[in-house]
Amino acid sequence: MTATEPRLDGARRPLTRERVLEGAVALADTIGVETLTIRRLAQELGVKPMTIYHYVPGKDAILDGMVDLVFAEIDLPAGDGWRAALRHRCMSAREVLRRHPWAPPLMESRTNPGPATLRHHDAVLACLLAGGLSLQTTAHTVAVLDSFIYGFALQEANLPFGGNERIGELAEQIVDAMPEDEYPAMVEFTRDHVLRPGYSFGRSFEFGLDLLLDGLESAAAAEGEGP
Description:
Blueprint: H1 17-31, H2 38-45, H3 49-52, H4 59-73, H5 82-99, H6 115-130, H7 135-157, H8 167-176, H9 184-194, H10 203-222
Helix pairs in contact: 1-4, 4-6, 5-6, 5-7, 5-10, 7-10, 8-9
């Protein structure tokens, strides 16, 4: 094997564009997208950096492809009625973004969307329009739901210890160092809610999603567009 030939993995898969992008996603899941470089990716794939350029023209193309792979993992709208279909899609999006915490800031920022990205957005719009929503209400629905999904995923990804497993331990440390007479509401909230068994920050996602869907459904019905 020459210095520029790809190293084969256990399944003896040769290097391809798909494998480069899959490797980039896996690497970003581990080290984050900010520190992902062509050199580091090449090292992970067992090739020379210049070999990567045979399959993708540069870092921007890699980022575009990574985002497209993430969109491909999100379920398309499914279910009876636009609300149920969109709820299914939103729940899936949250789970996918938990696996790829680097992705939310990039999901709508790329200017060269791939086929999976376009297919996903087209399916969401088709679901809403088929449900009888106007173009204006469809635009509001997409903007509000996506802002909530990406914002929640970004906040969840940046919570200490992932927001769940050790959040109680951290919260207890914080509240113990917090003067109760100065921050009584914080102390009460932490001790009587966050530190209770079964607390999960993630449960707020479904609560917030249903609130938004209730409001959007009411707005559609007020225009005579409801199901």
